[in-house]
Each structure stands twice: as structure tokens, then as C-alpha cells.
Design goal:
Blueprint lengths: L1 E14 L2 E6 L2 E7 L6 H13 L3 E2 L5 E3 L7 E6 L21 H17 L4 E3 L6 E16 L4
Parallel strand pairs: 3-6, 6-7
Antiparallel strand pairs: 1-2, 1-3, 1-8, 4-5
Length: about 150
């Protein structure tokens, strides 16, 4: 499982002009599911996201997690994180998970975050989404689960 994590002041997802989800301060996370991922990958990702210390403390150091600041997490599915562009000009997505498995594991990340008492929201899996955000910092982190 791969993720692009952005610390945001706010973020939202719309589908066909309709607001699907929005958050204030917290994390916007684009998640891609690989064909070798399973439930343990989703659990690992949720634990990592909940504890990732990328919010400033009183001295300005990265020492607080999204839980510490009582922020929200917005998870957006993005299979293109598994694009392989080493050959040619058209990306290959051979390493991305199938739709059904990816949808299940994407939802599992959200449910695992909620089980950790992190307010987690999702986009609409498989939809053409418009994502708006105000990146805070900017801070952008790449994560990859051990199975990813």
C-alpha cells in the first residue's frame, strides 16, 4: 500500500459538483492499493497515519500527530500511485490491486483509523473526484507499507 500524505489546513472532495467530504486541519492522504496488499497492510497504514508526527509542537518541531492535534483524516483512493513509467510514455498499472480488493482495503484503512478514534472521512472509490486542499507547510510525506 502506498500513500502520499499531506498536512493540510483544510481539504475537500467533490464528485460531479457534489461535496462528498471535507476536513479542517489534519491529513489528506492519497492511498493506492497494490496487488500484494492485504488487511495487515491496511492496519499498518492506519497505525502509521494515526501516529505520524508531522505537526508542530510549541517549539515548532515535528512532534505531534493528527491525534495529538485532534485533527481529521481525509482518505482519497488513487490507484495511479502504482504507475510504472520506466518504459515508454504510457504508465502501466500492473502492480495495482484489482478494483474489488482495492475498494475493500481502502475502506479498511478508513475503518481502522476510526477504530483508533481518529475522525476519518473518504472520497468516493473509483469516482472522478475533484480534490481541493490548502497544504500546510508544505509538508508532504510518502509512505509504503511493508507488503506494498
Amino acid at each position: 500500500m502506498r500513500a502520499v500524505v499531506q498536512r493540510v489546513r483544510n481539504a475537500s472532495v467533490c464528485v460531479s459538483g457534489d461535496l462528498v467530504a471535507e476536513i479542517g486541519a489534519g491529513l489528506l492522504v492519497f492511498v493506492g492499493v497494490g496487488k500484494n496488499d492485504d488487511e495487515s497492510s491496511a492496519a499498518w497504514m492506519a497505525r502509521k497515519l494515526s501516529g505520524l508526527r508531522i505537526f508542530a509542537d510549541a517549539e515548532g518541531r515535528f512532534d505531534n500527530s493528527v491525534a495529538d492535534i485532534e485533527g481529521d483524516v481525509l482518505i482519497v483512493s488513487q490507484f495511479t500511485l502504482y504507475a510504472d513509467t520506466r518504459k515508454g510514455r504510457r504508465p502501466s498499472f500492473a502492480d495495482a490491486s484489482s478494483g474489488d480488493d482495492a475498494a475493500r482495503l481502502y475502506q479498511r484503512v478508513i475503518s481502522e483509523l476510526r477504530a483508533l478514534e481518529i475522525p476519518a472521512h473518504g472520497g468516493r472509490f473509483g469516482a472522478d473526484m475533484q480534490v481541493a486542499l490548502v497544504n500546510d507547510g508544505p509538508v508532504t510525506i510518502l509512505l509504503e507499507s511493508p507488503a506494498g
